[in-house]
Amino acid sequence: MSNENNKTSLPHWASILGVVAIMLGVFLTAVQGNEAMKQAVVTSNMPTDGVMPAADCPEEELEEEGITVAECEYLIEHVKGVALAAPDWFPNVQMTLAGIGAVLAFISVIIGGALVNYTPWASKAAVVVFSGLAAIDLLQFAAVVNTGPTLREIYLGSILLWFILHLMLVVGALAGRHSEASA
């Protein structure tokens, strides 16, 4: 009986914020992990002399991927263009920020679960982690703004979207904490 009374006293804001944090956290963990991996792969496979090799589109790979020679050549040229547009410092900075972002995003999933089941430490931790994610967004924004138009076109839209989402999560956690304090 006391367990049922305890469930009804759980704040609804925490449950809603927790579910949103879990969904966004899972997605962002994948996005940031993919970005860190992409930067690591591109950096480790760049020719030391800076001269990009000619397009190589083996027939068996084209069949396996279900693409034409023209699509393959376009994809190779696209990767070359992105690699050439990146300043020397960018891949390491982006890889580091994406790695930290992936860890924080994974932690936000755990915090989301703690919010759904409302544990007292979760609302304070949510403010800290969501703020940390917003800070990573700002650092990625600063890095991308200091590159050229190619990388700005690729990255800025999604960075700004994640920044707005993380600010909304921070505001939700702060508002929830405030409503608890005034209750």
Write a compact overview of the structure shown.
With about 180 residues, the protein is an all-alpha fold. Helices cover about 85% and strands about 0% of the residues.
Integer-rounded radius of gyration: 21 Å
Question: Gap between N and C termini, in Å?
Answer: 24 Å
The largest sheet is: none
The number of helical segments is 7
Output mean pLDDT: 89
- Share of β-strand residues: under 5%
Total separate domains: 1
**Unreliably modeled segments:** none
* Fraction of helical residues: over 70%
* Overall shape: elongated
Structure class? mainly alpha
Question: Would you report the number of β strands?
Answer: 0
What is the N-to-C succession of helices and strands?
A: HHHHHHH
General description of the model:
By secondary structure, the protein is an all-alpha fold. It has one domain. It is 83% helix and 0% strand. It contains 7 helices and no strands. It has helices at residues 2-8, 12-44, 59-65, 69-85, 90-116, 120-145, 149-182. The longest helix is centred in the last third of the chain and has 34 residues, at 149-182.
